[in-house]
Amino acid sequence: MIDPTLREATLKLKSPDVSSRPLMAIVRVATKLLKPVQTPGVTISTVRSGSLRLRIYTPDRVLSDGGLLWIHGGGMVMGVAKQDDPLCGSVASELGTIVVSAEYSLAPRQTFPTALNELAESWRWFQEHASGLGVDPARIVVGGESAGGGLAASLVQRLHDEGGVQPIAQWLFSPMLDDRTAADRDLDSVDHWIWNNAANRVGWSSYLGHEPGQASEPPYAVPARRADLTGLPPTWISVSDIELFADENRAYADRLRASGVDVTVDLIRGAPHGFENYARESAPARALLSRARAWLAARLAMAELRDDETDHADEPA
């Protein structure tokens, strides 16, 4: 049952027919034409470096030398960084930290691993330019929403395996983690609000380049398929009990915990997928975003505390 405070906003939206090429062409043009949303006290700038396209949110009052690398959603087939101006701006403003939001190539024009390669390059850019932005490269969180949350999870897995400086946490809003959900045709009859399994199947098929649910996939293509989750950073996952991704999100959280990862699951009752975006002024969305920022702030503070303890340990007795 949908939360009554979200019903009106939800009824205005329908699950997009992402299988329609003409419709998707219109959606992509429309998202590119979105007007920027300014947050008071935050400056938005853009960077183009080769094929990289980054959107940077800089608070007037910098309170933390931590940072957030953010990845937008859109089912792998739509979306732009600009759509998350309100979320990224609020993080920069309220936490006083730099946020870098990364664009990536959309499917089906580009299939795996193009988007993930671009996001890995965005991570490297952030690492290389962190000091110039006033950020400690060892205190960066990777986060994302929906498809962006799934890409964030894949990126964190890849960075873990490659070694080097690691994200201190992953911050995932209703992440799109498992292609096997899309392959389960029994879920089609539920017709979940906003993002249903028919749309999910198009998204995964477009990204993978073939039908979802195959016996195996390459490493990092589908984050939920990774066998060993040991050593991944502390994780925050939000998910609603009535959305398509509920089971796969909770299963991933359970596996992370079993692997010794510190996990926080924020389970919301009666909220359709993406409500924190399209109904961000509603009471449930405001409450969720407040809790999410509090968790993120605590992680950045914990990283700062560990850094101070390490510095003091090096001092002579």
Task: Give your account of this protein's structure.
It is a single chain. By secondary structure, the protein is an alpha/beta fold. The chain has a single domain (4-38, 46-307), classed as 3-Layer(aba) Sandwich (Rossmann fold), CATH 3.40.50. 42% of the residues lie in helices and 15% in strands. It is globular.
Question: Outline of this structure?
Answer:
The protein is an alpha/beta fold and 317 residues long.
From the structure above, extract its key features.
single chain, 317 residues, alpha/beta, Rossmann fold, eight-stranded mixed beta sheet, globular
* Overall CATH class: Alpha Beta
Tell me, briefly, the overall form.
globular
Query: Which regions have little confidence, pLDDT < 50, spanning 5+ residues?
Result: none
Largest sheet: 8 strands, mixed
Tell me the CATH superfamily.
Answer: Alpha/Beta hydrolase fold, catalytic domain
Number of helices: 10
Q: Using only CA atoms, what is the Rg?
A: 19 Å
Structural class based on helices, strands and sheet pairing: alpha/beta
* End-to-end C-alpha gap: 61 Å
**CATH structural architecture:** 3-Layer(aba) Sandwich
CATH topology: Rossmann fold
How many domains?
1
